[in-house]
Amino acid sequence: EIPAVKLSEGEAVKIFTGSMIPEGCDVVVPVEYTREENGFVLIQKLFPEGSNIRERGEDVKKGLTILK
User: Fold this and answer.
1) Do 44 and 34 touch, CB atoms closer than 8 A?
2) Secondary structure of the chain in the HEC alphabet?
3) Residue 18 has pLDDT above 90, yes or no
4) Over 80: is that where the pLDDT of 36 sits?
5) What's the chain's Rg over C-alpha atoms?
6) pLDDT at 66 over 90
7) Is residue 3's pLDDT more than 80?
8) Rounded Cα gap, residues 58 and 64, in angstroms
9) Angle, CA 58 vertex, CA 54 and CA 59 arms, to 5°
């Protein structure tokens, strides 16, 4: 299912492991490095752009049989 949320700069949304990444998302910060305070998400460790985001099929090599 494609998330109905579209993020703008400075926005965050909670997703779960294995979820599709919402449009506009450029990094996934593990919940262990966040906390919520007064309606804001505080990030306690910075991650480079693209961190924790996997592309569909990146774990499968061309020519590999994945289903029989």
Assistant:
1) yes
2) CCCCCECCCCCCCCCCCCCCCCECCCCCCCHHHEEEECCEEEECCCCCCCCCCCCCCCCCCCCCCCCC
3) no
4) yes
5) 15
6) no
7) no
8) 12
9) 105
| Burial status of residue 25 (CB atoms within 10 A of its CB: 0-12, 13-18, 19 or more) | middle
CA separation for the pair 11, 48 (Å, rounded):
16
CA 48-53-56 angle, to 5 degrees, is 150
> Which of 2-6, 18-22, 24-28 has the highest average model confidence (pLDDT)?
24-28
* Token output for 3: 């998330």
Q: Please answer whether residues 46 and 38 qualify as being in contact, where contact means their C-beta atoms are separated by less than 8 angstroms.
A: no
Does the pLDDT at position 15 exceed 70?
Answer: yes
